[in-house]
């Protein structure tokens, strides 16, 4: 059951982008929202390394914004699922998304560490934003999608 919750959370993270209209440009000269969209486009096309590089540029330009961190976590989770063979079109077409826990292999340690590190940092930043501005719906949104 925990795997299903993690899978649902990862898929949710992949579909969400940070609303950053009017925000400063990132290292690539784009608004962060454009960079996030470009990064997820790369991820959906299985270019995970380029997607992570795109999100790392967002982190470099906006280190206190949880969006870059949670995006790296989301793409890393997607990579883990893909390497396991859990994120293939055939799984959806045949309805074979469920395996028993003993059938699921552990993810590579480096990918698991990257996932946890970035998700924890996104959560920390989002919690800090909620503490700073408890009435800000954007801060609560950031916390909800990271937690």
Task: Give the integer mean of the pLDDT values.
Answer: 80
Q: Number of helix segments?
A: 7
- Estimated share of beta-strand residues: under 5%
Shape: globular
Total beta strand runs: 0
Task: Enumerate the spans where pLDDT stays under 50 for 5 or more consecutive residues.
Answer: 15-30
Order of helices and strands: HHHHHHH
Write down the Rg: 16 Å
Structural class: mainly alpha
- Assembly category: single chain
- C-alpha end-to-end distance: 17 Å
Please, how many domains?
Answer: 1
Major β-sheet annotation: none
**In which range does the helix fraction lie?**
55-70%
Describe this structure in words.
With 147 residues, the protein is mainly alpha-helical. It has one domain (2-16, 34-146). Helices cover 68% and strands 0% of the residues. It has seven helices and no strands. It has helices at 2-15, 32-44, 48-61, 66-84, 89-94, 109-132, 137-146. Helix 1 crosses helix 4 (66-84). The longest helix has 24 residues, at 109-132. The radius of gyration is 16 Å and the shape is globular. Mean pLDDT is 80; it is low at 15-30.
Q: What's the arrangement of secondary structure elements?
A:
Blueprint: H1 2-15, H2 32-44, H3 48-61, H4 66-84, H5 89-94, H6 109-132, H7 137-146
Helix pairs in contact: 1-4, 2-3, 2-4, 3-4, 4-6, 6-7
List keywords for this structure.
0% strand; 68% helix; mainly alpha; 147 residues
Short description:
The chain is mostly helical. Helices cover 68% and strands 0% of the residues. The chain is built from seven helices and no strands.
């Amino acid at each position: 059951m925990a795997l299903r919750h993690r899978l649902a959370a990862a898929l949710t993270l992949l579909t969400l982008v940070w609303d950053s209209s009017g925000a400063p440009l990132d290292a690539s000269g784009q608004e962060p929202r454009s960079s996030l969209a470009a990064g997820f486009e790369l991820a959906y096309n299985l270019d995970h390394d380029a997607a992570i590089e795109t999100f790392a540029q967002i982190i470099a330009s906006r280190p206190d914004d949880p969006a870059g961190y949670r995006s790296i976590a989301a793409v890393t989770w997607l990579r883990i699922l893909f390497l396991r063979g859990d994120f293939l079109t055939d799984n959806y077409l045949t309805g074979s998304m469920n395996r028993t826990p003993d059938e699921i292999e552990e993810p590579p340690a480096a990918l698991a560490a990257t996932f946890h590190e970035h998700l924890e940092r996104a959560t920390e930043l989002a919690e800090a934003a909620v503490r700073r501005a408890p009435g800000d719906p954007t801060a609560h949104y950031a916390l909800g999608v990271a937690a």
